[in-house]
## 1
Amino acid sequence: MTEQEVKDIVIAIINDIAPDEDTSNLDGAVRLREQLDLDSMDFLDIVMELRKRYKVEVPEDEYMQLATLDGCVSYLKPKLEAAAA
Amino acid sequence: MGSSSHFDVAIIGAGMSGLAAGIRLAHFGKKVCILERHSVWGGLNSFYKKGGHHFDTGLHAMTNWLEPGYRGPRVPLQRIYRQLRLSPELFQLEKQGHSQVIFGDVRLRFENGLERLASEIAREFPAEVDGFLRLAGDLEGYPEANQDVPFESTRDRLEGYIKEPLLREMLLAPLLWYGSAHEDDVDFEQFQILFNSIYREGFCRPREGVKTIIFALVRRYAETGGELRRNTGVSRLLVRDGVVTAIELDDGAVVTASQVLSSAGLVETMRLRSDQPKDAVREHEGQLAFTEAIHVLKRPMRELGFDAAITFYNRGPRFTWRSPEDRLVDLDSSVICVPDNFAHESPLAEHRLRVTHLAHNQRWFSLGAEEYEAEKARMVGASMSVTAGVAGDFRPHVTYTDAFTPRTVTKYTGHINGAIYGSPHKQKTGRTDLGNLFVIGTDQGMLGIVGAMLSGVAVANTVGSG
């Protein structure tokens, strides 16, 4: 799985849970909450979708790993690969 | 299919709260089934066709107008769009121009946002404007949802801000009309929600009526894969060892579910339970009931010089928010709704005027069939002449009139006493004494379309993440 594929998965989920946000020009190094209007409930939804769609579990004390798009990629890539294997 | 199906969650009622809860639970990956007795969705906020005209059962206005491009602390309608994953355009909301409160010969107009109301108060009650602004400041933001806090009288609290009794009454009237199941008062926490929903954020309306909202929810629910059975009433909840073990349907079939969410109403739900008497929790029955006359007009009210979206009218200085004691209907106060006055882009296909009055529920229920029809016609006539005095004489332009009474409400929604706003005893956490039975909708706390959807979302979040 490439880094771009992981990014696309996360962005597809954000597009579904926040259809009114523009995700076309996100900076991978900047916190998502600074670029999009997302609150903690929205992050719960991202985690919920990762579990539902890819059987990936994100424990509550690791939510901060998802703060930036780059963070999502490095944290989720091994998990998504393990779940797909 | 078949007579025994099992679901993670069964929801009683395909109204605003049931549909919202269903969507949200499906997001959590739950297998959900909504059971609706009626052939149409919507519950208290539904629609019908009569005399060749399409009518909404209840909708006057929606609260919590969200200005496009709004950025700031999360407000209710934003939470709904997010949590239900709906795009805001789906609701086709148009905001009001202005609404008004008329008490005798004193009038206060208000728009969305507090500026207009504050300037009207400065004109009519110059000494009170500082108190009003202090009140508005203290009421900013929303109390945390789902918390069980005891009832606190708004009338008592308001005296600390506003000295003039008439102004207190005038500020209270719209909020009681659109959000209090409690006679003569409203819980202060509820008042805060209503103040922000109605005055700060304000009124709007889906252009084509409530159908737009319902269809958006039904479509979204279908997309999530949830099941919805219409013409499927729940007749009994079988209870054993502190849980609902099975749901018996009107046709005798049985459905089972790990969790049950009921939008039937708190008292109504208790009475569905096999472990409760048929008259359980009488003390919690709602009493506030209404009649409404809905007129179809040849000309929009604006052409008669009446341009307020919603008018809260009261004949004198003191507002009575209770079931009228010695009459079928209380004509001293009313809410006058003009859908045309929300539509600024282009005129609506049909012109309407909706007029609501407080009604005595049991007096309406005890009438014989013929008497009932006669009294209903009499109510419409009397309501028309009072309204003509407030809004201008629209009577020559009426082409069709339909009306509802407390009896109509009970017949189509099952809510006892025709009490649209349900029990004054709200179940703010949604929990009941049974571990797997939850209350959603009107009796969970918040009223109105936005309140009902938020209720479904909040309880679904509790149930779904557990």
## 2
Amino acid sequence: MSTPVFAIVGHPNKGKSSIVSTLAQDESVAISPVPGTTVGNRRYPMIVDDETLYVLVDTPGFQRARAALEWMQNQPGSSRDRPAIVRRFVELHRDDPRFAAECSLLEPVLDGAGILYVVDGSRPFGEDYEAEMEILRWTGQPSMALINMIGSSDHSEEWSNALGQYFRIVRVFNALTADFDKRVQLLLAFGQLREAWREPLQRAVQLLEEEQGRRRKLAARLIAESLSQMISLTRRRRLTGAADRSTEIRTSLQQEYKQALIALESQCRSDVEQVYSHRHLERHEALVQLLDEDLFATQTWSLFGLTREQLVGTGAVGGAAAGGVVDVVTGGHSLLLGAGIGGLIGAVSAWFTADRVADIRVLGLPLGGKELCVGPMRNINFPYVVLGRALLHHKMVEDRTHACRGPMELAQAPGEFQVADAGSRKRLEKIFVKLRKQETLRPELLDTLADEIGKLM
Amino acid sequence: MTHTSLLSDLIDLDSALKRDGSTDLDSRKQRDRRIGRVLQQYRNNSVKQVRGWLRQVEVPGLKRFGQEGAQLYHLLCLLLIIAGLVTGAGLARAVLLYTGDRPINIVHALGLLVVPQILLLMLWLVSVFPRRIPLFSSLQSALALLNPGRLAGRIAALSGVEGRQRLAMLWDPANTTILAPAARWLFSFWSQLFSFSFNIGVLLGAFYTIFFSDLAFAWSTTLELDSASFHEFLSILSWPWHTLLPDAVPSRNLVDISRYYRLEQGVLGRGVAPAELAAQLGEWWRFLVAAIICYGLLPRLATLLVSWARFRRHLSHALPRLPGAPELLARMNSPLVSTAALQPETAVEIPFASQEAVPESTRYGLKCAVVDWSGTGIDADTMAGRLRAMGIEQQNRFAAGGARSTQQDSDAVASLCALRPEGIVVAAKSWEPPLLEFLDFLRAIRERCDRPQPLIVLLWGGADGVADADVETWRVTLRQLENPDLHLEVMDAAR
């Protein structure tokens, strides 16, 4: 069974490259308002592992269609000979720069490609299109007309009437706004051109749908990873020297913390865009707001990085354990006084010696001191804000076709993603609490978070 | 598959995934799918898949420090074993120190060599209890800090070798979500390794003292505790080994003769000959050793094995969940779907200066022939009015392009040149880009009319008006003609 090939043909500047870019999810396609940007054919095969399921061929637009048609019409022969006349035209004019565009676009058609004729439905129909439509009819190949809505006006009905005289199938397709479902519907429609193409195209659509599912899953995982890092992010700085530098250190640490949050979010955005093959996407987005004024905690850190509170806990438990030995040795007759007193002594001594430990230096390195710590983010709304932004970004990336070349305006996106479902919110809150407290963390927590995010997508 | 090689792979995989982020995504997709197909037999085992990938992949600039990290892990294990042996043997020697002045109090020996171990074991159990009980969680946090295994982690961080420092990724706060359970059980493993070695050290120290010196044990109390009760307590304590090692269960007679009163000499072993007494008092060692083995060594062996197994399990569990690993697995296991072009884009880049302002109309003061290109559909009055505003008087009107033949175009050129107009206006639809056949038409006018009169291209925007982008498209395209007499004008109701 031969691989279906579809040649995207038409007038210059009517969105052929946009349609190819959207269907092939390839942003490398040059889309320019200047006619003649596409100078030769470019093939966009859908390859799954080593199997090619279909090929799209982007072609240059007709430049001298009337002259080409006149040449063909001047050739002797009946309507049955028309495909052969077109072939002869291409053979004779292949090296003629006047008909370079016509020869390029007709070559794949003569090799058996289905014709996808693209027009701009936002502009009125013109009689100058008739020559190129007639040439395409002469090829005898199965064809479909696509009305691409580039502008805001709608002349699609006028176009449908005109195109209906030349093409069996006429469809309206907006290459800039078509979501995934519309794209696959169009691919399935290509299968109507020839019976033998239906099956490979159905298979292609099925694989594309599976791929889309995988992309969503991956995007959810990336958002989960980023969110978890953002929630648990901390930045610490040792406080040394004069106390008057504290404010300076605070400012610089807060800046560092904010930058780290921004970097994490930005990295997540880029990673999600990569998943959807948007590699050079420019985006405009307001920076994440921190929501929480009180980000700082000054802690005493001591031996092995334990805080004063942790040291007290450690001292208490240690003391209680030592005192407990006394209780055991006395056969319980001490009424657990050993453990109690031991715990108290351990806690008190740890509290009073914490600062002293901080002053001790071993091999020139201090065993402790004071440090300023910013994070983890305690504001309970923070994860929801970050998640909402990430979901909104994902939605826009997922829906964005590769024909769109301008920056993505996240700030101007309508509406905001909110986790309205109480069940989801409850499940998410459980995870966020664990991440905030950094307790009972397990790798499965990220799996669960990714699943929950996936459900919200 | 040992946990050390798992550890080594975890360190290497983390480095590889971080480093791989700079590789182009398409290259990664192709490479990983290829490796995924080679490792097809491990499709249902993500751990084997990522480890297999690690063996096969070549990431540019990747330094594999896994082996060095594993070496540090081994070194720390060795240090803990030595420390456990030395402290255990030292404690046993100190507890069993017997100068002959006074027998060793068996209760003290038990209290120091066995009871703390039971207590610590209970604390260990508390610390590994699932943290779902709120009451336990704060206690567990404190116990986690007490864990001597954490010290090993701190020592690891002091290592100056870069590769060895990679071991610290296990307890790096940035990896907490993924690696916290593995780190927790690693610390537990290290602490149990120390404790197990400590018990071995205690036994070695005890055996050394028992073999190479004579020991006498006794028991003593101020309370009204009779021998029968004490014997009963010891029997309960000895229950785990009473069938296996009956000699290690103190007899009632031994308990009787071992009771020691410091107040009177000869109270110990009343009625028993000194030589026989010395031999009998030494019999306690069997009980002491059995108690250390039963309540110290064997539980520690069990906790050591549990910790080892849990550490290994959590390492395996973390491996396919490292940041980037789920994406890697997806790339390996999913068909490689490519829809993009295989060849690079070769389109011609034509500079598009959209910033250029739309030209203001000039007053020409000319009598011009007018060509309607490709059926603009402009009515005669509108056209005449607009031309008048530009200072142009319309002479004759021709039609070309569109549904007409190229011969008709040629005839139209010939006719209008014959008129020898002062200028020529070609009205065209602004939304249709200027094709090469339009440029051919303009060239034909230039060639056929023998004098260089102004050639004005007048853009008509229809109901929507002329878009600035369309004007720019026309301007850029017409510039290719390099005709100094060529002018671009806009006929727009809005202007």
